Amino acid sequence: MNALEVKNLIVKIGEQEIIRNISFVLPEGTITALIGPNGAGKSVLLKTILGLFPYYGEIKIFGENHLKMLNFVGYVPQNYTLDPILPLTVFEFLKFSNRDKNKINAALKETDIYELKNRNLVQLSGGQLQRVLFARAILNEPKILLLDEPVSETDIVGKKEFYEIIKYLNQEKKVTILITSHEITIIHTFAQRVLCLNRSLVCVGSITELFKEEILKQLYQRDIFVYPFNRPNTNTNE
Ligand SMILES: Nc1ncnc2c1ncn2[C@@H]1O[C@H](COP(=O)(O)OP(=O)(O)OP(=O)(O)O)[C@@H](O)[C@H]1O
Ligand SMILES: [Mg+2]
Fold it and tell me: What is the reported pTM?
């Protein structure tokens, strides 16, 4: 079964066509990387799936209209603005999404930030806040996770831990994952599928697609060399 099905999706903001007639599916239980240059429409696509932008076309989650199925979706936004006037602890913040104390504690343990439980949100570092947003995303045991650059501010140890957690959620709990990231060499090691977006879809399919020079060139509109996959030949002796 497909966890997500997007058909002939067009998103316009004002006069501008941000997403140009794209179609793809996310088979249940897969990890898909959503790749593309700045301004490609990646965040707009995720927000549209969440019902935050009007669109033309069709979006289905487990075969039903997506708006009816949002309880099955967890989301980590690319940016999150804290309200400094309303100081909240991590625990209080998570309580807005689920009032069950045991579930909050479980999510904090699963994302390895139990020690941040009573810390004030505004006092957290960027990487710690990202981890709290991740805990919030898994709090209601989602079947689909939409992750928008979820580790952009996280250190290398935190990133490794994060990827281990999402691998666990995918393998043990069969969560379907769509993740945007600019770190395509890291993505390559754990995503099975890729969506290359630059307003239109440039490629959809197996992750190996991404490391074809012509795909990267079309996606980023310039020559890209991804070490070590298609490194230019720098050996001057040859
Ligand atoms: N709320 C909005 N109002 C008007 N334009 C918007 C809005 N949100 C996004 N856009 C425009 O839509 C386009 C795509 O933006 P989007 O944030 O989806 O890009 P992205 O692929 O996520 O880029 P990045 O890699 O920088 O995160 C951009 O031109 C952006 O200016
Ligand atoms: Mg974005």
Answer: 0.92
